[in-house]
Amino acid sequence: MSHLLNRRRFLKQSSAAALSLPFLTGFTRKVAPSDRLRVAHIGLGGMGTQHLKWFAGLPEVEVAALCDLDETHLATAQKTLLGLQPDAKVQLYSDFRRILERKDIDAITCATPDHWHAQVAILAFEAGKDVYGEKPLSYSVREGQKMLKSLKRHDRIFQLGTQIHAGDNYHRVVEIIRSGAIGNVHTVRLWKPGAPPVLGPANYQEPPSTLNWDFWLGPAPYSKYTPERCHFNYRYFLDYSGGVYQDFWSHIADVVWWAINPQNLTTVSAKGEVGEGIGDTPKWIDIDYQFDNLKIHWTTTPPNVPGAANRGIGAYFEGDKGTLLCDYNTREINIGGMLMNDVETVPLSIKRSPGHQQNFVNAVKTRTQPESNLEYARQMTLPMHLGLISWRLGRELHWNPKKEKFRHDGEANDLLSRDYRKGWDWI
After folding, report:
1. Where does the Gfo/Idh/MocA-like oxidoreductase bacterial type C-terminal domain start and stop, copy by copy (predicted)?
2. Of 81, 184, 392, 401, whose CA is between 20 and 30 Å from 153?
3. CA distance 87 to 159
4. Contact at 8 Å (CB) between 278 and 259?
5. Virtual CA dihedral for 189, 193, 198, 202, nearest 10 degrees?
6. C-alpha closest to that of 193 among 298, 275, 106
């Protein structure tokens, strides 16, 4: 009992010193077992395994539990952990709710398919757990609203898994844009080339004995099992996700919302085609957004601006004094016809991240929200949902940002949420 009390006291105490120390690796810093954050990982496919590796490498973290509905994923994750920490003692679960019942677990990470993100997070908040959740934040607009309300009610910590947010390049882009070096930004162009794979025909069959397919579907509409709908490919079906567009929106829109915080969205207009095969997400999608004094355009092909064609993802800021083009790791600034990759007169004004996962750990300990916190992430994610709704309906939509609903459009408002499958409506 004294062990648990000491650990909980450590986690609850706000420590300014914890944030002021530079990040040190496990080779140079020892942490007492009673002071470690006990973390459980829920969803252990490709990204979930990355979560496991990242957090297992932090000296202040103890991996306490692993959970997946696919026994093969669970076994692989356990083997991965033991390869990193041969003496690790970890419990395995197929139902994440059993993890939330444990009083000794402080936080979870969630890398399930998109349609489970909100339920896992909200139930974790209610159980007193903090959450590191993968992008996108939620399946729908209403889920994001519920997540924020629950987080505040239960005083929890949340970090969205926009790992690139911690990189120096995004920090520097934000500093340059905010400094006014390119003037007032009036237009932003975002792009991500790439069509979904052509899946099918559907190979309906009994699900593998190692997979709980009914639980995997959870709140989504029922479908017979076919391998084409499951695991990585789920993102190409509207029942679970929103395709390449939804998958990559947060990667690059993040730097825009961080730099200029777009306000008062009024109209959304999307066009595109449905992918080939049995998937039903966009083959391509172009979207025009109108905010206060700002236009944002999303395209599946690079826009016709200098330097865009050679970048597989990017953001192009147009100001009244110049432009700034960036992707994850590079940037190109044009002011008065002069090309540069930095503006030396702009000071470093944003504290650099100790690492995205370390930032979450620090936030849990000090009870302060991290860089990619839920309130910020919800504002950044919301236009993505609205763009997809405009594409599904095939028309321009008018948004009321104060009420967070479409103006005089019941059909569009119906798509801000969906009814959960009977028996799986847990929030």
Report:
1. 205-425
2. 401
3. 29
4. no
5. -50
6. 298
